[in-house]
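Query structure, 124 tokens:
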């Protein structure tokens, strides 16, 4: 199975990050917005896809900071060592907290809009 990176295509911040990934990394994965993905075929719920970046591969579904770690691991040098470090405790725990902080405030970050807010009722 080819890995799939699933992101929020309605979020300007997420889309800006994906454009960076496409320009700067050699990612061996399909990148798709959750809104255009067959979530059932990927084994992912819409609720989960709304709230975190997902890395779906033959080895499972990884969300949030661990999805970022998997992405970096599969992007090759110079990114893969960063991905390996993000998988190790206590860095893993810190990465989870930072991811949650960024995700909860993505509408305030560069490229973000009101549509990026996780609690946006229009996204339900």
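Result returned for the query:
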């Amino acid at each position: 199975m080819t890995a799939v990176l699933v992101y929020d295509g309605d979020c300007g911040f997420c889309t800006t990050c994906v454009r960076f990934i496409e320009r700067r990394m050699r990612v061996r994965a399909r990148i798709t917005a959750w809104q255009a993905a067959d979530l059932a075929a990927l084994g992912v719920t819409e609720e989960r896809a709304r709230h975190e970046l997902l890395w779906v591969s033959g080895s499972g579904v990884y969300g949030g900071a661990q999805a970022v770690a998997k992405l970096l691991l599969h992007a090759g040098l110079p990114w893969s060592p960063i991905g390996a470090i993000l998988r190790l405790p206590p860095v893993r725990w810190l990465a989870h907290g930072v991811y949650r902080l960024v995700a909860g405030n993505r509408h305030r970050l560069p490229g973000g809009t009101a549509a990026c807010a996780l609690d946006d009722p229009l996204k339900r």
